[in-house]
Amino acid sequence: MNSALKRSVKTILKSSIEEDKTFFDITSKSLLDSSPLRCELLFKENGILCGTKIIEYAIKSFNKKINISWDFNEGDYIKNKNKVGTIVGPANLVLSFERILLNFLQKTCGIATTTFDLSRAIKNKKIKLLDTRKTTPGWRLIEKYCVVVGGGENHRMNLSELILIKDNHILACGNLNSAMTKIIKKRIKAPIEVEVKFLNQVEEALKFKIKRIMLDNFSISNIKKAILMIRKSPGVEIEVSGGIDKTKIKNISHLDIDYISVGALTHSSPSIDISMNVLK
């Protein structure tokens, strides 16, 4: 885990402990002491194991007396009812930390699993599955890490990494030609991507030196037309986005495109059902 990811985990962990009042768990304090307790982590549905190092770091940041061991590796496909890990530590601390631990693990595994499911639907392995910036505030680095574990790739991490001219930029500047002219005059040394919603905008964008065109919410027939136009300009990449699900992926993954971007990977992935059970 790199230092930036560690900082994200630590920040979220601190907030989680504060909102859950973990150190004021009146139930665990009343019923339990620091006697050793062993618990299992059990997958209750099929999915991808993701976040093992994140969980290890979160546990050690919370209390070094708690230890976890894993039965599987990061990125492994786990079947329903499989035990993936064992937690050992003081009973009162382990059970006070249970919900925070599961919140982290269910979310990370959920994103990786959704990414895995959608990436499998792409038959042409030349096409890369991308995430977006539609992430949970504060969770971006973690969520984008989970996308990679699930078999996807990261689009830009933040606004400083790439010039991405979107529809609102175009509307605010008047039209695409005006927006592109302003950008070119700035002579910023950064790749340029342009989001287009109509075929005539594809023609406009290709007049300029750009890295990639994003076809947003294009119909299948218009995607095919756009591909023919764009491939006349060597080196310009094609990204398809908007309303992407398994069905649409299957319908477009045979086409000559480079990327499919899916905001749902991070903003709508359901958490995997995982339980923590005391072992007798």
Plain-language structure description:
The protein has eleven helices and twelve strands. It is α/β, with parallel strands linked by helices and 280 residues long. The longest helix is centred in the middle third of the chain and has 30 residues, at 91-120. The strands form three sheets. Strands 6-11-10-9-8-7 form a six-stranded parallel beta sheet. The protein is 44% helix and 19% strand. The mean pLDDT is 96. The chain has helices at 3-20, 26-31, 52-62, 91-120, 140-149, 167-173, 176-186, 199-205, 220-230, 246-252, 264-267; strands spanning 36-43, 47-48, 67-70, 77-78, 83-90, 128-130, 163-165, 192-196, 212-216, 237-241, 259-261, 274-278. It folds into two domains: 3-119 and 269-278, Aldehyde Oxidoreductase, domain 3 (Alpha-Beta Complex); 122-267, Alpha-Beta Barrel (TIM Barrel). Strand 10 (237-241), helix 10 and strand 11 (259-261) form a beta-alpha-beta unit.
Core attributes:
19% strand, 280 residues, TIM Barrel, alpha/beta, 44% helix, 6-stranded parallel sheet, elongated, 4-stranded antiparallel sheet, Aldehyde Oxidoreductase, domain 3, 2 domains
